[in-house]
Amino acid sequence: MRSWEGTGLPDNPENRKLLEAAAFVISAEIENETFDYLKHFPKGNKARLFRPAEEISLSYVTVDSYYKTWSKKQAERVRAHRVKDYLAIPRHVLKTRIGRQAFGKLALGQLNVSHLQTLQNKLKARGLKANSVNGIIHSCLRAMLRDARIEGHIKINLFDRDFFKPLPTTDTKSSIDPYTPEERDVIIEGFRTKRPHYYRFVFFQFWQGPRPSESTALRREDVDLIYASVRIHRSLVQGHEGGTKTVRSNREIHLHDNVVPVLKDENPAPMNVNPDDYFFTTPEGTPIDETNFYKREWLPMLRRLKVGNVPIRPRPFYNTRHSYVSFLYSIGASSGFISQQTGDSIKTLETDYAKYIREADSRRDFVEEQIRKSATRVKPTNYNDYSPTPLEKKKPPRNRRLKDGAGEEGRTPDLMLGKHTL
Q1: What are the chain's domains?
Q2: What is the radius of gyration, based on Cα positions, of the chain?
Q3: Strand order in the sheet with 229-232
Q4: How many CA atoms does the CB half-sphere of 39 hold within 13 Å?
Q5: d(CA 411, CA 242)
Q6: Nearest 5°: phi and psi at 281?
Q7: What digits encode the pLDDT tens for the residues 81-103?
Q8: Is residue 232 a contact partner of residue 210, using CB atoms and an 8 Å limit?
Q9: What angle do CA 272, 275, 277 make, to 5 degrees?
Q10: pLDDT at residue 303 is higher than 90
């Protein structure tokens, strides 16, 4: 078993000597099988494993009742996106049966690692992807149980990696699934002719690529059509307005030339505009709710549209953002510009959209040509017929190189690293 233990001592030469001596004693006790963990680390990370059970007082508050009080506090503590994620706890966790009773009916003080392992296996058996299971258990549920532990309801670390690990995510497919340029054009035209009220909103999403929560939170004061820029510093999730996803997401984006005329259309006269009004709204003038828009407008529109004779495959409305980024990469836009527009880091962009970056590589044709030449070059079928290249002719045989570099006794000198001979 491995465990990292803190000492709380300042890092200086005196304390280092003291801890080296302590480490020597601990190593000797482990070797002699006389090591007493609690003697050396009474408040250590794994002290619970060695403390007698009678010393631990149990809390009989159930997971269900604790969630009800805990969830009410979260709106003031975390972003609206995070509050939305926490809804996975009642949907997937509380009603899942662990043995004879639901997980939500278990007492917090009686929870152990086997309960979480069973929960994880059952969610996996339902067909949820590993990424989703990990998000529910190792992110959302873990946040709640961490607070329960801080308040004294739980005495042990249920998420100790030595005993309980997230599922491997090798079965998780990439979520980057953009609409093609052909699909984009058909969808935009469908909204222009059949649902014109949302035409500007959909056009803006496809051609600027913000997160939908950022678009729905835009106020008129944030949109400058004269200088073709938009200031993004808010998000709107399920009616709750808050900050953007990250500090990097607070940005000012450039409006492309084709977007400005569309946003100017149907724009009310300046004297009738309140700077605090939402820029994109429902026909009733209320802010757009992304979930409702997806169910009532987006999916019905996709079901009636086709590209050629092929129906458009439904994908989340969020994938309009993927369409924007993948299109920019395919036409040769730089990662720096795309990062400035979307608020994502260059590292994230180049990891998630790697296959689209290749299409914009100006030297790709040259590279492919050199690979073809190398692949079609005739190779010798008999090693005896092989003739070395000029570079290889200059390179002595390996046994000769070893002999030339050997010591007086015909062997290479040892490489010393500290006290260990390699």
Answers
A1: 13-55 (no CATH), 63-150 (1.10.150), 181-357 (1.10.443.10)
A2: 31
A3: 223-224, 229-232, 251-254
A4: 7
A5: 70
A6: -140, 170
A7: 888 889 999 999 999 999 889 99
A8: yes
A9: 80
A10: yes
